[in-house]
Amino acid sequence: MMFIRNESFSTFVHRYPVVTTLAGLNIIIHLWVLFLPYGAELYRQGVGANFLISTGEYWRLLTPIFLHSTQSLFHLLFNTFSLVIFAPALEIMLGRFKFLAVYLLAGVVANIATFLLETPMYTHVGASGAIFGLFGVYLYMFLARKDLLDTQNSQLVLTILAISVVMTFVSPQINILGHLFGLAGGLILAPLFTRNAKPFYAVRHTSRKTYLDEDDISFKPNRWKNRARNQKVIRIVLIVIAVLIAIGIYTRLNM
After folding, report:
1. Known catalytic residues?
2. How far is Cα 93 from Cα 196, in angstroms, rounded to an integer?
3. By three-state DSSP, how is residue 204 classified?
4. d(CA 136, CA 81)
5. CA-to-CA distance for 252 and 255, rounded, in angstroms?
6. How many CB atoms within 10 Å of residue 104?
7. How many C-beta atoms surround the C-beta of residue 149 within 10 A?
């Protein structure tokens, strides 16, 4: 399974240095904001404040990805947990640079959408848009690159994604547009970033070596070639996402 974490801490750090760094930054910055000198100022300078972005503080389209609510520890724990569970496979499959790029770009897309569609006084923090971007990449793999995602992991990804989307609409104080546009951003970016991707179950990193996982040698890489069907499914999913985004926009404009 791609999402079962049974590595030791040192092995996890060695295999997934980008995920480790991102998770570590989430925790360190949060502790700094809460307990260390200038933490409150760090938070004020990094929060995604639409009015301040409109005055030229464009770094606020990036910095909210590394900040979390000071009112709820759950916000930090949920996003960091999601990152540690679901991101390592993508770091292996895409490569470190591409993984980091798609994570940050999806988060920025989510924050740009929030800036353009929310009210001028709206503020937000959190890595959720970037994490939904990773789910967007997985969704693209399910739809168009089945050579990268087996049936068991596909079902798990779709289940978690469905639950996450539902929770986006029913949970209080959620940046709905950030979640939806993060998902859409990852889905749109995925064809570029998965071009030379390798299946997680076939290729892993161990001390600079690559090896085949013998448990998965029965996998048939040609199962994904029904392009006509895939294209239809992709269009349907894009329509569903567009409807969800429209609902989110309508909800915000009528609040």
Report:
1. 128, 179
2. 9
3. strand
4. 18
5. 5
6. 15
7. 25
Those residues with Cβ within 8 angstroms of residue 188's Cβ, 6 or more apart along the chain or in another chain: 136
Chain centroid to CA 108: how far?
11
Beta strand 204-206 with 48-49 is unpaired
At 231, the pLDDT band (50, 70, 90 cuts) reads low
pLDDT tens per residue, range 83-109: 999 999 999 999 999 999 999 999 999
Closest CA to 135 of 173, 171, 97, 167: 167
Tokens of 154: 């596909």
With H, G, I as helix, E, B as strand and everything else as coil, classify residue 169: helix
**β-bridge partners, 204:** 211
For residue 197, count other CB atoms closer than 10 A to its CB: 21
pTM of this structure: 0.80
- Residue 71 tokens, joined: 């009112």
Q: How far apart are CA 221 and CA 12, in angstroms?
A: 28
All domains in the chain, ordered by first residue:
9-253 (1.20.1540.10)
- The residues that bridge with 205 in the sheet, in sequence order, are 210
Where does 95-198 have alpha helices with state H? Answer: 96-117, 128-144, 151-170, 176-193
Q: What is the pLDDT of residues 128-186, one digit of tens each?
A: 999 999 999 999 999 999 899 888 888 888 999 999 898 888 888 889 999 999 999 99
**Alpha-carbon Rg for the chain in angstroms:** 19
